[in-house]
Specification:
Largest interface: A-B, 24 and 28 residues
Strand content of chain B: under 5%
Number of domains of chain A: 1
Helix content of chain B: 55-70%
Mean pLDDT of chain A: 89
CATH architecture of chain A: 2-Layer Sandwich
Oligomer: heterodimer
Strand order of the largest sheet of chain A: 2-5-1-6
Shape of chain B: globular
Number of helices of chain A: 3
CATH superfamily of chain B: Ammonium transporter AmtB like domains
Mean pLDDT of chain B: 91
Number of strands of chain B: 3
Shape of chain A: elongated
Strand content of chain A: 25-35%
CATH class of chain A: Alpha Beta
Number of strands of chain A: 6
Strand order of the largest sheet of chain B: 1-2
Number of domains of chain B: 1
Low-confidence stretches of chain A: none
Number of helices of chain B: 15
Distance between the termini of chain A: 23 Å
Order of helices and strands of chain A: EHEEEEHEH
Distance between the termini of chain B: 56 Å
CATH topology of chain A: Alpha-Beta Plaits
Largest sheet of chain B: 2 strands, antiparallel
Largest sheet of chain A: 4 strands, antiparallel
Chain lengths: 120, 445
């Protein structure tokens, strides 16, 4: 099992979600975060005050997948989130020791496999 | 109103300024000016948060650009003596616009009052092109549009032009303001094309309370728009005021019922839209029909606009904030119903409509609608094509993705300043490198 963490642009979130849906990757967590990935600071002016906006809004997506899904998930995110400009984000893949599904008490591979529609 | 005994004296003498009329028109002018910020809130709440400031600025900028243009040239083209198609340049640069009476109010006040109409009409169009039209070309567009579309049509209907001579009834601007803006919005949405996300993902209003606030302030300002169109304090202003009070109430009720039976809920965005549609529809009729007919007019007006919006949402046409369905369709409904409900018993200066035994008035109203639709539609198309040949009207998809606030204005509506670094004056000194927003390096701004 791996934990995939992707940091992407907010306006690319819908594209990423769509790509993941098409790849049959279900079960993810999304949070709004601030970050900086080496892009040039944007300058904003508010009357007399000029500021460099160093932290950009980003979206963080967390997905726990079984080994067979790692490459597919990463490829889907890379393709959907890319614009080609600095600031497109990162994808991190981490080892995962344990996963527990709270509802059923299932663990590991069984816990990251989505429940069958009939079981819902 | 002057005492009856004084009336002959006043009519014989040169026009005089009447203080009561002046007081009401001063208030009305301020009320109508407030409608443009109100529209900014109405439109601003309907867009996504990354475009809130740009959308609001599209309304606010009209206060500057269109207002100054009005004073310098457009007022004269609309209201100075001319032929039946366009006014002359006698009042250009405010020449001859002093404190002497125009009707019963000072001429400067008449000019200012009419200017507030030109401003909001231009701002109305922005709803069709929000979240994608570049700011510079938008400003150029509304300036040219005011000069080439608004001023001539205002002259036709109000300034002594050919529609006025023929007897088309438009009390406060159903044709000049709403049909004009509505059809131009439709053409602008077609010429520009849709937002990149339109029809692909849900684009939802980011602040519905703003939408309600805007609708409420629009209603408040509209009392000056319609009530002030009597150009005097008195019976006619009271009639127009009361009709403006009643018609949107009926539209709101019918709209909420339609919403409820169609979706199971009476929605807030729907309610706000219903109020605006009712206000639009009663605008041409306000000073010509009875209050009971105003309720009927408001109720009827909900139907065409409601279904036009429902239909539009299923098409590829990205008239983003439904300016055509609201103002175009609502304005046409109101203009035609004016020809149905108008009654000389309520306004001797008006005319009888269909119900009072004069079906010809309905034909005249249709003539006003038809010419306005054709002229405004064609001219908007030409202006946008000419501007589009000189510069890109639409932001690049990348810019659209980042949002128009940051890319067009270098500001955020809801930024909290976290992670921002103050640029000290020394860093911004003239001899240092110019500070430019560097985000859309590859995209047209």
């Amino acid at each position: 099992m791996k934990l995939i963490i992707a940091i992407v642009r907010p306006d690319k979130l819908n594209d990423v979600l769509e790509a993941l849906y098409r790849a049959d990757v279900r079960g993810l967590t999304v949070s709004r975060v601030m970050g900086h990935g080496g892009e040039t600071e944007r300058v904003e002016n508010y009357r007399g005050t000029s500021v460099k906006v160093a932290l950009q809004e980003k979206v963080r997506i967390e997905i726990a997948v079984s080994l067979g899904f790692v490459d597919l998930t990463v490829k889907s995110i890379l393709a959907a989130a890319r614009t080609g400009d600095v600031g497109d984000g990162k994808v991190f893949v981490l080892d995962l020791d344990q996963v527990h599904r709270i509802r059923t008490g299932e663990r590991d591979e069984a816990a990251v496999t989505p429940p069958l529609p009939s079981a819902v | 109103m002057p005492l009856p005994a004084l009336l002959p004296l006043l009519q014989d003498a040169a026009p005089t300024v009447v203080p009561a009329d002046t007081a009401w028109m001063l208030v009305s002018t301020a009320l109508v000016l407030l409608m443009t910020p109100a529209l900014a809130f109405f439109y601003g709440g309907l867009v996504r948060s990354k475009n809130a400031l740009n959308t609001m600025m599209m309304s606010f900028v009209a206060l500057g650009a269109v207002g100054i243009l009005w004073a310098l040239v457009a007022y004269s083209l609309a209201f100075a003596e001319g032929n039946s198609w366009i006014g002359g340049l006698a009042n250009a640069g405010l020449a001859g616009v002093g404190v002497e009476a125009k009707g019963t109010i000072p001429h400067v006040l008449f000019m200012a009052y009419q200017g507030t109409f030109a401003i909001i009409t231009a701002a109305l169009i922005s709803g069709a092109v929000v979240e994608r039209m570049r700011f510079g070309p938008y400003v150029a567009f509304i300036v040219l549009w005011t000069l080439l579309v608004y001023a001539p049509v205002a002259h036709w209907v109000w300034g002594g032009g050919w529609l006025m001579t023929r007897g088309v009834l438009d009390f406060a601007g159903g044709t000049v303001v709403h049909i004009n803006a509505g059809i131009s919005a439709l053409v602008a949405a077609i010429v520009l094309g849709s937002r990149k996300d339109y029809g692909r993902q849900a684009i939802l209003p980011h602040n519905v309370p703003f939408v309600l606030l805007g609708a409420g302030l629009l209603w408040f300002g509209w009392f000056g728009f319609n009530g002030g169109s009597a150009l005097a304090a008195g019976e006619l202003a009271a009639l127009a005021f009361t009709n403006t009070f009643l018609a949107p109430m009926a539209t709101l009720v019918v709209w909420a019922l339609l919403d409820f039976f169609r979706t199971g809920h009476a929605t807030a965005v729907g309610g706000a839209t219903g109020i605006v549609v009712g206000l639009v529809a009663v605008t041409p009729a306000a000073g010509f029909i009875s209050p009971l007919h105003a309720i009927l007019l408001g109720a009827i007006a909900a139907l065409p606009s409601y279904y036009a919006i429902a239909y539009r949402a299923r098409t590829r046409l990205d008239d983003s904030l439904d300016v055509f369905a609201g103002h175009g369709v609502g304005g046409i409904t109101g203009a035609l119903l004016t020809g149905v409900f108008a009654a000389k018993a309520w306004n001797g200066a008006g005319n009888d409509g269909l119900l009072a035994g004069n079906p010809g008035q309905l034909g005249l109203q249709a003539l006003g609608v038809g010419t306005s639709v054709l002229y405004a539609g064609a001219m908007t198309f030409v202006i946008l094509k000419v501007l589009g040949a000189m510069t890109a009207l639409k932001a690049a998809p990348r810019t659209e993705g980042l949002g128009m606030d940051v890319t067009q204005h270098g500001e955020e509506a809801y930024g909290n300043g976290e992670g921002s670094i103050l640029v000290l004056p020394s860093e911004a000194a003239p001899d240092s490198a110019p500070i430019v927003a560097t985000i859309p390096q590859t995209a047209a701004r």
